Amino acid sequence: MSTEKKGGKAVARIYRKRIELFRLIDKIKLWPSRKGVLHGIRTIEKMGDQAWITTHCNKTFKIYNSRRSRAARWLRNKWFSGVCGKCAVPDWKLEKYSATRFRRHYGSFLLKENSKNG
Fold first, then answer.
1. 118 to each of 32, 46, 107, 110, how far by Cα in Å?
2. Which of 32, 80, 85, 107 has the fewest CB atoms inside 10 Å of its own CB, making it the most exposed?
């Protein structure tokens, strides 16, 4: 299943499907807008179940931590119509994102190294 990094191919990564949105965004650093444009994330400021996201094209907005939100579904299913020209998401990041798989009963929980309980 996983490909080696020979010849420029990305390694297949497997994450849990029902992971919280903040953990997923911290790892992937991409955000799908409502029009389907994929943006690169510059900063994430978490405040409880809310966070402020700043993209590389200087758009700032507030999001909520949800597993079933539109953005979480779009990230898991890799639904997007294009990439933001101002954010300049590199090709290697898009290849890595396209090689990422989400499984329900298998994969990383995206936990921090210190905490093992969730």
1. 26, 17, 14, 9
2. 85
Residues forming a β-bridge with 44? 53
Q: Strand locations in 1-118, DSSP E?
A: 13-16, 30-32, 37-47, 50-55, 60-64, 82-83, 100-103
Residue 29 backbone phi and psi in degrees, to 5:
60, 35
- Give the model's confidence band at 81: pLDDT under 50 very low, under 70 low, under 90 confident, else very high: very high
Three-class SS state of 62: strand
Q: Which residues of 38-56 are buried (b: 16+ CB within 10 A; e: fewer)?
A: bbbbeeeeeeeeebebebb
Considering the entire predicted model, what is its pTM?
A: 0.80
Residue-range domain boundaries for the chain: 13-103
Closest Cα to residue 76, out of 15, 11, 7?
15
Please give the structure tokens belonging to residue 94.
Answer: 């898009």
What are the pLDDT digits (tens) for 32-69?
999 999 999 999 999 999 999 999 999 999 999 999 99
Over residues 77-84, mean pLDDT: 94
